[in-house]
Every structure is written in C-alpha cells, then in structure tokens.
Amino acid sequence: MEILGVPVDAVTEEEALARVEGFLGHPREGGAWLVFTPNPELVRCAQRDKEMMAALRSGDLNLPDGAGILLAARILGLPLKERVTGVDLMHRLLDLASRKGYSVFFLGTRPEVVARAAGRAGQLFPGLRVSGFHHGYFPPDEEERVVAGVRESRPDLLFVGLGFPREQKFLWRYRSSLGVRVAMSVGGSLDVLAGVKSRAPQWMRRAHLEWMYRLLHEPWRARRMAALPWFAGKVLLLRWKDGRGR
Question: 84 in a domain, yes or no?
C-alpha cells in the first residue's frame, strides 16, 4: 500500500523478520535487498525531495514504523497490522545472524559510538560475526571509499544510520556496489545499541507515545516534530477527497 506516495508493507514483526530471512537466503541480482523504515518525517521529506521519494520507492521492505503511519493507515482505510520499529527488527536480525552465521557491518553515528555498538552487539548476541564498522562522519567525496570498505568486508547484513535523508539516498545510490545481501536503514538505532541513548519505557511504546519521550529527552527534535501536523493535514485532506470521490 502507499501513504502519500510512499510504499508501506502491511507486515507484523514476525512477518518482517521472515521476509528478511528470505532475502538473506536468496541474494538479489543487481544489488542488495533494501529495508527502510518510513515515518511521518520521512514521508514529508519524500514529498519535497524527488530523490528521497525514489529511494523509498525502491525499498524491498518498508516497515510501518511510527505511530503516525498506523494512524494514517486507519484514517485511509488501509489494512496495516501493527507497528514494526527499525530498532526492534534490527535486534531480531542480529539475533538471527548470530544463530545462522550471517556477518554484519555497522555504518553510521560517531566513531566512538559505532565502535561501542559493534562491541555491544557481540556481547548481546554471542557468536555474532561483525565483519566491520565505520562512522558516519565522512564527506560526500569519500562515499565511494566507504562503499569499497564495506564491499571488501563482505558482510551479509549492513545496518546504516547516517540520518535522513542521507542514509536512504546512500543505500539507493550504492545498492549495487555494496556487495551485501541486505542493507537496512536504521536511523538512530545504532546509538540505542551502543547504550548512549535509551528507548521509551514499554508502556509508552504500547501507547504510541515514544515520540513524546524523545521530545522530552531531545528538545531539539521540536523542529522535526513540525512534520506531524503537516502529515496529519495531508492525510485528512486525502481522506476527504477520497470520500468526495465516492
């Protein structure tokens, strides 16, 4: 299904995990299988940025990440099953990789943080093969060198947290050059894995209030939260137009 032009897959977390496991077992001709995590901020960005829209539309699995996506689907009468967050699926995939022998590579965030994330991943998931990691603070003219480093490490799974829209465009642009089976956009999940940021309590997650927790702990996000009323207005307008059409 699509929400304001951005494809979103109606999957549960278990179904998303099974689909990525299928990707790992069947390498894609022409490049990596891409996994994105659309939320209202990304949808708003895609509405204004053609390259971002092209990137998100190239995803092989677009998770319904963000309470706003679920609410929009409900308003539009689309059958999304549940919220599937990128951080939760990343942890499930790390567990899968440790059990099945798949290797992983972490790309993004600050140098000391990505190193810590790689180390903690090995502690949390014994037997996990970390083929490498690289920070996300590199200029555009070094992208090809970073891609070559990933390719030389030959990981099966690549987790990218460069911040949007950079990480989505990066994966879209280099999907055929990375030499990985699956590449996933994970945003700030590497900071969570490293333990430098915490997630909202479980009760807030169940109540779809994780955005409030983030805002309280990171007030600078207030500017980014401006995407929410814009997103809600666009969805309601689309619903009204659709209703009139009927």
Answer: yes
Q: Which two tokens stand for residue 171?
A: 């994966």
In DSSP notation, 133-185 reads EE-S---GGGHHHHHHHHHHH--SEEEEES-TTHHHHHHHHHTTTS--SEEEE
Which of 140, 117, 139 minimizes the C-alpha distance to 197? 117
Look at the pTM and tell me if it is higher than 0.85.
yes
Residue 246 pLDDT > 50? no
- Predicted local distance difference test score (pLDDT) of residue 16: 98
The token pair at 122 is 């090995």
Classify residue 178: in a domain, yes or no: yes
Summarised one tens digit per residue, pLDDT across range 145-156 is: 999 999 999 999
User: Does 246 reside within a domain?
Assistant: no
pLDDT score of 239: 77
Pairing of strands 33-36, 61-62: parallel
pLDDT of residue 241: 75
Can you give the residue range of the structural domain that contains 137? 2-240
Tokens 């179904």, located at residue: 15
Residue 245 lies in a domain: no
Domain count of the chain? 1
